[in-house]
Amino acid sequence: MQELTSKRLYFRTLTEEDATSTYADWLNNPAVNRFLEVRHSRQDIETCRSFIRACNADPGCFLFGIFVDHGKTHIGNIKLGPIDWRYGSGQIGLFIGDQAYWGAGYASEAISAITRFAFDEQGLSRLEAGCYEENLGSLRSFLKSGFSLEGFFRKKFITDGKRTGCFWLGILKDEWTNDHL
Ligand SMILES: CC(C)(COP(=O)(O)OP(=O)(O)OC[C@H]1O[C@@H](n2cnc3c(N)ncnc32)[C@H](O)[C@@H]1OP(=O)(O)O)[C@@H](O)C(=O)NCCC(=O)NCCS
User: Fold this and answer.
1) Domain chopping of the chain, boundaries
2) Which residues are bridge partners to 63 per DSSP?
3) Between the chain's N and C termini, which has fewer beta carbons within 10 Å?
């Protein structure tokens, strides 16, 4: 099991026991899934379990639960993957499922923690992330964590019944500093 800590958060590899109805409800909540691909299929405990199982079996993926209260309360997930080990690059995705914890800087803190893990502990050289055009919270979280805007895919997705673009962000190991932690 992998564990990480940051100033206020604790992260650990999820296990199948972490797949609760609360977790499934987060993913079915339109406010949470609005910019997530998971919105295209209904989630339940079994779909969450099988996602956790698949991630844990994949050598190109680290799926962490994000916890507060010294590891007692699960509030969301952050994933490093897919990783392309040949190129030392990987993608990051995350959600804070419990909306009571939005706007407290937890996403930025989680991105910084997993960035440090990717560069310092896994030896990766480059990280990437995509975010929907309207997802200003996500865009801002990555920028605050030191990512740069690398591109914009026009009208790539459909959400809320209309086509929408997607920002592409990246960070190189050379650019990474611990200032963001
Ligand atoms: C997007 C998300 C991860 C942001 O998490 P968060 O913990 O609330 O973000 P933070 O508190 O770290 O905020 C980071 C910055 O974004 C800003 N921000 C947060 N939500 C915002 C919003 N809806 N609109 C504009 N800015 C927003 C914050 O003010 C902060 O900027 P500041 O420090 O300059 O004030 C969270 O809302 C979420 O999980 N949403 C649902 C899933 C999702 O969209 N995941 C990302 C997929 S790419």
Assistant:
1) 3-180
2) 79
3) N
In CATH, 3-180 is 2.60.40.1930: no
Cβ neighbours of 131 (radius 10 Å):
20
Residue with the smallest CA separation from ligand 1 atom 32 is 140
Task: List, as one string, the DSSP characters of 119-138.
Answer: IIIS---EEEEEEETT-HHH
134 token code pair: 């309207």
Joined tokens for residue 47: 């779909």
Q: Of 66, 139, 141, which is best to mutate to test ligand 1, by the most ligand atoms within 8 angstroms of its C-beta?
A: 141
Q: What is the pLDDT of residues 100-151, one digit of tens each?
A: 999 999 999 999 999 999 999 999 999 999 999 999 999 999 999 999 999 9
CA of 169 to the centre of ligand 1 (A): 15
What is the number of other CB atoms lying within 10 angstroms of the CB of residue 84? 13
Q: Report whether 11 contacts 78 (CB < 8 A).
A: yes
